[in-house]
């Protein structure tokens, strides 16, 4: 697969597919700019070569028509601020006006087209829509790793029309980061998997058995495993419909050297808030009406020991309800231990929106080897699947 350095972009108009689907508050202030600032190296390479850039992206989930709240107009000034570049915003993404402006771009100039999802054709995969975008570019660059598990027009069908195409630096880093874990990880390898639901990560767990030496399971998803094994989990999160999948996991583990480690103790409460009484329970003996909302002190100790002896670390999903201060200790402590292991030379990759918000809360963003912006795309790769849009860059 070609990467950015394969090309010289001089005089070329680049259709640069980015993921500007950033979180915003009610006043349209961007609350996390990671996806924007992470593409700066790619923009700089193209501009330094003397190229022109047409940024294309989706933003939110408009219902196939112009919905003001999903317009890039709301956030263009912040995008300009974060990228520190002059950018012309065009209030459409296809058509005569767009073609006219793009055709008159000079080397070094950047435009941002309006939200691709204002057209139903973006999500439906429409060749005519793609042809209209194709018309305005000489070369296609996919820098939207986090949107590349979806077979949409701009990520899957559009690149097929181009002869000149490649992935951007961020995309390359994301793939290398995951391959550093799944294919070239130094032993011992460890994964810490948390979050609310076992259903969203069960395929990841299944795939990384036989790759990892240890899989530590925390967060709300742990309780379904514990219940399956006959423990009393009180009113903790439970997904009974995952029992069959859990059975498969245990079967696979029998013939594997991989060990799954569950929490020993939990911090529980009767209320999902900071106001209720808290108690520490053995994870197998949580009382009726009490729910486990964080890993307990013994578990923090045990998990820390495993993490500190590992050379390759993957973390996805918080170990408790870190949004509530009473149940944040587990997640923050584990983040700090992973940072320590990284400082000692381990490779660490952190993914998943909530784990990233957690480390931002304690200002630890710089203390890991790589923070993935990949979301669902990252999970698909961890499940062992190929990202569908990569095929369109290769072929
Ligand atoms: P996910 O999107 O599956 O990674 O889940 C993230 C969410 O899981 C966060 O908002 C956490 O508050 C929540 N979470 C973590 N541990 C628990 C738990 N023990 N009970 C309920 N929710 C939890």
TL;DR?
The protein is α/β, with parallel strands linked by helices. The protein is built from 16 helices and 17 strands. Helices cover 35% and strands 17% of the residues.
Description:
By secondary structure, the chain is an alpha/beta fold. The protein folds into two domains: 4-167, 3-Layer(aba) Sandwich (Rossmann fold); 174-382, Phosphoglycerate kinase, N-terminal domain (Rossmann fold, 3-Layer(aba) Sandwich), CATH 3.40.50.1260. 35% of the residues lie in helices and 17% in strands. The protein contains 16 helices and 17 strands. The strands form four sheets. Strands 3-4-2-1-5-6 form a six-stranded parallel β-sheet, sandwiched between helices. Helix 6 (127-134) packs across helix 7. The N and C termini lie close together (9 Å). Residues 194-197, 200, 219-220, 237, 292-293, 317-318, 320-321, 323, 352, 354 line the site of adenosine monophosphate. Residues 194-197, 200, 219-220, 237, 292-293, 317-318, 320-321, 323, 352, 354 line the site of adenosine monophosphate (AMP).
């Amino acid at each position: 697969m070609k990467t950015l350095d394969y090309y010289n972009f001089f005089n070329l108009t680049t259709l640069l597919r980015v993921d500007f689907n950033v979180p915003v508050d009610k006043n349209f202030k961007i609350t996390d700019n990671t996806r924007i600032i992470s593409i700066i190296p790619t923009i700089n390479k193209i501009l330094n070569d003397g190229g022109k850039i047409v940024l294309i992206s989706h933003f939110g989930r408009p219902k196939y028509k112009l919905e003001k709240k999903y317009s890039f107009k709301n956030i263009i000034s912040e995008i300009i601020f974060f990228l520190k570049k002059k950018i012309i915003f065009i209030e459409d993404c296809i058509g005569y006006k767009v073609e006219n402006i793009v055709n008159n771009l000079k080397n070094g100039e950047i435009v941002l087209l309006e939200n691709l999802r204002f057209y139903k054709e973006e999500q439906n995969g429409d060749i005519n829509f793609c042809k209209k975008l194709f018309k305005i570019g000489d070369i296609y660059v996919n820098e939207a790793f986090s949107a590349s598990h979806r077979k949409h027009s701009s990520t899957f069908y559009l690149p097929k029309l181009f002869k000149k195409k490649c992935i951007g630096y961020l995309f390359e880093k994301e793939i290398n980061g995951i391959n550093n874990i799944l294919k070239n990880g130094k032993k011992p390898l460890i994964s810490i998997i948390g979050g609310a639901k076992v259903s969203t990560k069960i395929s990841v767990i299944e795939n990384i058995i036989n790759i990892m030496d240890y899989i530590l399971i925390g967060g709300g998803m742990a309780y379904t495993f514990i219940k399956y094994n006959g423990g009393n989990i009180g009113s903790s999160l439970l997904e009974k419909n995952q029992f069959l999948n859990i059975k498969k996991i245990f079967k696979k583990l029998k013939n594997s050297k991989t060990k799954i480690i569950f929490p020993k103790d939990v911090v529980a409460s009767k209320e999902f808030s900071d106001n209720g009484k808290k108690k520490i329970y053995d994870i197998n003996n949580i009382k009726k009406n009490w729910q486990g909302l964080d890993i307990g002190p013994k578990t923090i100790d045990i998990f820390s020991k495993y993490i500190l002896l590992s050379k390759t670390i993957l973390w996805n999903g918080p170990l408790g309800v870190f949004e509530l201060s009473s149940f944040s200790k587990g997640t923050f402590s584990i983040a700090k231990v992973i940072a320590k292991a990284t400082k000692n030379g381990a490779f660490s990759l952190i993914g998943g929106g909530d784990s990233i918000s957690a480390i931002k809360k304690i200002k630890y963003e710089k203390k890991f080897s790589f923070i993935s912006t990949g979301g669902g795309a990252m999970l698909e790769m961890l499940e062992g699947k190929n990202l569908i849009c990569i095929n369109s860059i290769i072929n």
